[in-house]
Structure formats: structure tokens, C-alpha cells
Amino acid sequence: MEVALAAPPSPLQVTWDVFLSEAERRLAKRERDGRDRRAWIESRVVIRNKKRERVPLIFNVPQQRIWSMWKELGFTGVRCVVHKARQEGVSTLVLATFLEEVCHRPNTTAVIVDREAMEAHRKLRVLKFMYDNLPPDEKPKLSHNSRNEMVFPELNSSIYVGKAGARKFGRGDTIHLVLLSEIAFYPDPESIVTGITEAVPNGEGLVVFESTANGAETYWHNFYRQARDGQNTFRAIFLPWWALPEYRQPQLAGEAPLVRTTEEQQPPFDKLDDDQLRWRRDKAKILKERVEAEDPSTDEGAFLRSGRTRFDISALLVAKAAAPKPLRVEDGGALTIYEEPEEGHTYTIAADVAEGLPGGDFDAAVLVDDASGAEVAVLWGKWPFHVFADKLAALGCRYTAARPAVVAVERNNTGSAVLQRLLLGGEGVPAYRRDRLYAYRDYDQASQKTLPRPGWPTTSVTKPLMESALERLIADHPECFRDQRVLSELLSLVYLKDGSVGAPQGAHDDLAIARMIVEAVRPESLSRRSSGGFTGAIFHGVPHRRVSPLGDLIDPNWIPPRGLDPT
């Protein structure tokens, strides 16, 4: 049954609702729009279903859940995040809603962003298919029809699409309808979200972010969690795979009855029937470790198991739950203290220096007790190189003045600038004690000797050493992990496509790198203290020569190599 639509009112027309209070007007609009919009979409919008049939867009269960939220909010000023399984019709619903709004609300601008240009163009093709199949008398004139936009001149409205990062969406624009699709995979989601949301007038329009999971403690994970917990202006919806009733696999003739595993006897699986569990098992065989990301059962589980994680998730989650509160937080939140310095204890600091790129990582340092490996203090922020170096020196001398902490700075890229400051000092700032600066032994081709060079190099040789050292500590002493930010970053580390270990898009790994370095260096600091020497090992590039695999502490009389001399 089709619903007759009234022509849009003239901007000069005075209607009865101007005499209503804001609450009454919102309620009236909610009741009117909630009924008419859905009727218009389900009676006029045509889609291709999974069987390649042209069918009306009748809302499925996930779409009804989203629609109910929008209706509750009166379709005005809606800010919505959808954490979802694949192919539940979320973007289809949003596209149909955008088309309905553009057809009936003049002066509307809609923006659709996806992680890839091909996906963005595919969504525009879906919209064009919907438009082409509208009744002729309800189809607004289309003047510009390209791969990137649809323009309706008589309504002064437009819909345009693009790839995340390809242009500065929202800069200088006023936008009313926004869909950010698969935001978890954007290269710099924070800047895109900031630009677009600032372009949408307060209390107006419809803004939808939807995505599957792509790693823990990422921008998308944190944004969704904040929305779910009422910590930002967005409302959150989680759509597990079993929200779609069609996801089920009947028992085949002659197939043995399904015997539930221990996991399948626990929530949420205990409330699912055997046909649903068969479907899930079939998907797990195909998707393997990606199954929880693509077809999640729980919202947090999707993030934690959306990649092949490097470290033991269960142990890290136990440590996260049991982590103590810090003694205090200083330096405007940059320095977190868990223990005061103790007489007779020695300490080691590892520092990861940020590259200074917009949206990049932070400067990070982790200080641990040499004997236990427990986190004692964490420094985290963004500073000029000399400021970060001075903060490291101050923290090292604090733990303790008589025997300052060993400082191991990752020397890759910008780390050399921090090392120079520590080695040479500055105006009114003394140099750090050279016998407390860590130096890694590099093989010098010219002299054919291994020579100490300040700082820690993170390379294809040393990275596995760092990871395995921390892996042992997580397994044996999870109580050594106290800082929530450090734990969050360790949870996010996954094996990337090239086989390396790192944070997924939208996440940081600066604290995780510092934590791995300090655990690799700590045993040597302790060995130096107890025996004055180091255990030998085969050093990469020097066959059969026994030297320290991790480095040495700089001798008090050591002179910086020419490559580090700023003069």
C-alpha cells in the first residue's frame, strides 16, 4: 500500500506547530516522521537482495532496532554508532533514509565516506539504483550524476561520496546527513570525525558511524565504548551476528546431532538454537581468527579477538582488572606514579620518541624496578625533543639521586635528538650521567669490532627479543603490569599483514614499545648491579664471537661517536 505524500511546505508558510512548546513540537514531529518515513521507504525503495532479486526494502530485525532508536530521538539531531556484524543491512538502511530525506527536505547535503574509493562508489551505485526505481512522479530531477555525487538542483540538495583521507570532508561545508562506513579501517579516523561532525549543525541532521571491529583499544573501539557508556553525545547499538534470524544452518540428512562445546554452553551462545550454532561453526572454519571481528557474538569480544593478537589476552585482561590505582598523577596528567623510590633499589627507564607527525604517536617512557620488573612510573605526552629529554633526566634522577635510573632511548629516527640532549645537556641543564645511559653494541665494519652506541635500536633482530622478553613477564608475573594505558596498548598489538607486530589503524603503540624495550634492557641493568658483568651470546653479524646480545651501559669516559656529535 502506497502512502500519498504532501508537497513540502513553503518556507513562508506559518504552521500550527509554531505555537507548541519545543517538547510538544518534537513529540509531534517524532510521531509524524516515525510513521511516514518508514512507510515511504518500505513502499517505494527497491533493492537487490542476496538472491539477486529486486524487492522492496522491508526492514529486517537489525534495521528495525536502528530505526527504533532514530524514532525515539525524533529523527532530529541523531548521533549514532553501530558496532555490527557483516551484511546486516545497516548501510542499506542509512542510504534509503538519506534518499528519503533528500527527496522531501530541500537544501540537504549528505556525505558518505568509506575506507576505499571502490566501496564508496559502490554505495553511490546502490543509491542510484534506489533512485532509478522510484515512482516517476516522486523522483526529483537529477542534474549531475557522476561517480562521486548526485545533485538535485530543484531541491538544492546533493549526495556525495569519497574515500577516507582523500579529501578534507566537512572543512568549510554545512552537512546534514553523514555516514562513515567501516570507520575502524580509516588511516586517521579522529581527524575525519572531527572535520565532519563540526560541519553538522548542533541538534540537526543524522550522523551514523558504522563498522566491524579492527583491533582492541583503537579509535573506533574507544569511541564506541564511550558512546555505549554515555561518555559522549552518540548513542551506541551493537548488532551481533545472531540478530539476523536468517543466519542459521539446518541439520543435514544423516548429520550427527550437534554436541555443544563448553563455550557454546555459556552466554550468549546458551540462548541460541543448534541451527544457529551450526552456522557459526561453518563461518569459523572459513574466517578462522577473523570470525569474531566479522561476525561478533559480544561487543568487547569482537575488538579483543578481531586480529591475531601478539600477547596473551586472558593474562592481560586479568592484569587490567587487578591493576592498582596510581599513588598520584603529576605534570598535568603526563606522569603517573605507582611507587616511590626505595633505598637500595635500582631502576630502568625505556623511552619511545614520537616522530612529531599530526595524529602520530606520543612520546612515552616506562620506568620499572630492576629486581621485580614492576611498573613504577609512566610518562606519556607530546613534547619537543629537548623537553622530553629533560623530563627523562629528571625522572631518572628521582629514582634515585645517588644512582640514577638507567635510561634506554629508542634511537630509531628522532630518538637521536633526545639522546644528544641527554648526552650533552643544554643551557642550565646538565648532561645525564653517561654511565647511566644505555648503549647497544653494534658491529663496526671498519674496525671489525663491536662498539657501544647509545640508545636501543628496534630492528628485525631486536624486535623479537623485546617481544619474547615481555611475553615471559606477562606469563610469569602479570602483577608487574599496573598502568591501564600500557595494558590497553599491549592488548591492541596484532600481527599485521606483513607478519610484523604493531598496532592496527587508529591505535597507538608508543607505550607498548617502551614497555618491551625496558623488559629487554632490565636484566642487563640488574646483571651490572649484581656482578659487574654480562652474560655472553652470539651477536648478529659476528659469528662465533661471544658478546652481549642486548648492549651495555656507557662507560663514564665514553665519548659520543662522530655521528652523534652535534658540532
- The gyration radius over C-alpha positions equals 29 Å
First-to-last CA distance: 83 Å
Number of domains: 3
Strand residues, percent: 15-25%
Mean pLDDT: 84
Q: How many β-strand stretches? A: 23
Q: How many alpha or pi helices?
A: 15
Architecture overview:
The N terminus and C terminus are likely disordered. The strands form six sheets. The chain has an eight-stranded mixed β-sheet, with helices on both faces. A six-stranded mixed β-sheet has the order 11-12-15-14-13-16. A hairpin with a 4-residue loop joins strand 17 and strand 18. It is about 35% helix and about 20% strand. By secondary structure, it is of the alpha/beta class. It folds into three domains: about 220 residues, Rossmann fold (3-Layer(aba) Sandwich); about 45 residues, no CATH class; about 220 residues, 2-Layer Sandwich (Nucleotidyltransferase, domain 5), CATH 3.30.420.240. The chain is globular, with a radius of gyration of 29 Å.
Please give the structural blueprint.
Layout: H1 22-44, E1 46-48, E2 54-56, H2 61-72, E3 78-84, H3 90-104, E4 109-114, H4 117-132, E5 144-145, E6 149-152, E7 157-163, E8 177-181, H5 189-199, E9 206-211, H6 219-228, E10 235-239, H7 274-287, H8 291-294, H9 299-304, H10 313-322, E11 328-330, E12 335-337, E13 347-352, E14 363-369, E15 375-381, H11 385-398, E16 406-409, H12 415-424, E17 438-444, E18 449-454, H13 462-476, H14 484-492, E19 494-495, E20 501-502, H15 510-531, E21 537-539, E22 542-547, E23 552-553
Parallel strand pairs: 3-9, 3-10, 4-7, 4-8, 8-9, 13-16
Antiparallel strand pairs: 1-2, 5-6, 6-7, 11-12, 12-15, 13-14, 14-15, 17-18, 17-23, 19-20, 21-22
Helix pairs in contact: 3-4, 10-14, 11-12, 13-15, 14-15
